[in-house]
Write a structure and sequence with these properties.
The protein is of the alpha/beta class. The chain is 33% helix and 19% strand. Bound molecules: 6-phosphogluconic acid.
Amino acid sequence: MSVELHACPDRAALDAALAAELAARLAAGIMARGSASLVLSGGRTPLGLFAALAAQPLDWSRVWITLADERWVAESHADSNAALLRTHLLQGAAAAAHFVALYGGEATPALGLAAASTRLSALPRPFDAVVLGMGDDGHTASLFPDAAELAAALASTAPLAAVTPTLAPHPRITLTPAALLDSRQLYLHIAGAGKRTLFERASQPGAVTELPVRLALQQDGVPCAVWWAP
Ligand SMILES: O=C(O)[C@H](O)[C@@H](O)[C@H](O)[C@H](O)COP(=O)(O)O
């Protein structure tokens, strides 16, 4: 399936346009099915998107939100993706959305998998939209090329996997491709010249284990749109 590229003039335009696109998709899901589900990524890129999304007029009480991945830290930790989402997205009217956290407080992500899977099953599936980021090493969600658990996570039929990156901080919990691709639409949200070049490289044939973002870019089941700004 070909990947659609939306190149925006700058990051503010990207955030505004992608927020409007996501809101329209969620509104259509609510109209068709009574509720809608959204999977978002953490990291630095989505901060402006979260703020733009929070300002969208939507019946947020009908929206279910979770993360594509989470660092295994409490929400009081500066690296918590859930805290990022609560601070930048779940504000004002958007606070009415149902947020499902992946972190559950267990000692390790492996110990938290069962309870997180149960929580995750509250989200309507297929997800209406999954927004992925991409790291400079080609990881997406927390599917890191250097992690020992990568091959098993890529092949898993379970929705979640525990992953320990060797080059990034914190053990992680991540949605697997089995869950990420159980969606109506994928978005890859990236910014900067380096990520544009990496996206072009990942669009060339090659192993998903080398550049895990290929799980979204090189598959035939779910439409994938890449949203980029310099
Ligand atoms: O928890 C995380 O770190 C993310 O979900 C991760 O997959 C992120 O999307 C990329 O690492 C890009 O991060 P930046 O946006 O910070 O470059």
